[in-house]
Amino acid sequence: MGSKTSxxxxxxxxxxxxxxxxxxxxxxxxxxxxxxxxxxxLMANQLRERHQGLKKKYRELIDxxxxxxxxxxxxxxxxxxxxxxxxREKKLTEELKELNQxxxxxxxxxxxxxxxxxRQRLGDEEVGARHFPAHEREDLVRQLERAGLQLEEAExxxxxxxxxxxxxxxxxxxxREKACRLNVELNHVLGNREARVIDVxxxxxxxxxxxxxxxxxxxxxxxxxxxxxxxxTALERRKNxxxxxxxxxxxxxxxxVQETLLVERGCSLPATPQSISDLKxxxxxxxxxxxxxxxxxxxxxxxxRILGNRVADLEKKLxxxxxxxxxxxxxxxxxxxxxxxxxxxxPPLRLRPDxxxxxxxxxxxxxxxxxxxxxxxxxxxPILIQHFRxxxxxxxxxxTLAPPPPPGGxxxxxxxxxxxxxxxxxxxxxxxxxxFPPL
Length: 439
Hints:
single chain; mainly alpha; 3-stranded antiparallel beta sheet; 11 helices; 7 strands; 70% helix; Coiled-coil domain containing 149a; CC149
């Protein structure tokens, strides 16, 4: 108990000491504030006295104190005269505006009166269109002079705008040459292919398109990997089951599905746990197949969206080239490099006349051409193939994925994406048996 009391006493002493210190600090701040208050009061009194003195001097100047020197009186008189002159100037300005308005109205009345008198004297209502008095002729001459001045000013403005247009054209040519040099340097860095100089804008657009295609191909690869994993799992289950020929095992073929549906339509399927399990497995397989078809449709929609964006970019670039005046008519144009010596000596290549062409950086590039046929000239065939391969890689990818033609000159049918996927023998579908409670 004594220890608690001593601890409480010590804490109270500490609190008291802190309160004393705080009180001392507050008292010091109070003294400082009082001193500042006294200083501000003194300054306010001094300013008030100064204001009273200046006010008194001003009144003496205005009242014209005879005890002041002549210079001060002259200053006061000048200030009064200046104020009076400003007021008179305002009044005269208002009177001048009013007189100008009255003069305009009087001139209009006089003109109307003269025209009325002239019509009454000549008896012609259309005299105003053919007869001009002297003052009206003077007005017309003045208007003609003003119109001439305005015409000269407009010609001067047109000349200035023309000079500015020439400067802008020169700057545009400088930027165009800079872009050409940039394309040449980029072509030199990327392999110095003289067959076609790479354009920076086309390269950026192609990069965006390839990025989208790469993302789509990654999704397709993931889908194929999941299908392969599913097939492997189904095969392992079928191998481990020990009954490869059992009906409706872990993998269903198309023939088994057809037989099962026919049996079910004939209502001869026994209501046994095995048949119910087989039907559940069949439903699961069909649902998974539908899910795969939906995924394929989604990928095709994504592909269509990518191709639509690609076509929109190409149309935008084509519109830009058409507006800039770089559009050319169908004809014979060389597919050569930029400033290369070999392009002048090589014979020109005839492009398809039914396709539009755009003039890029010194090269004519056909828009969306098909895969080029086999070239007869061994000199230009690799160049043309590289040119088309860079513009449309998906066409060459389709040719690479297509199966080779059968011997004998027959044309092989083109396989779809689903038919090119790896499948099990007999068109088997993977089935994951769900766990159901026994009936």
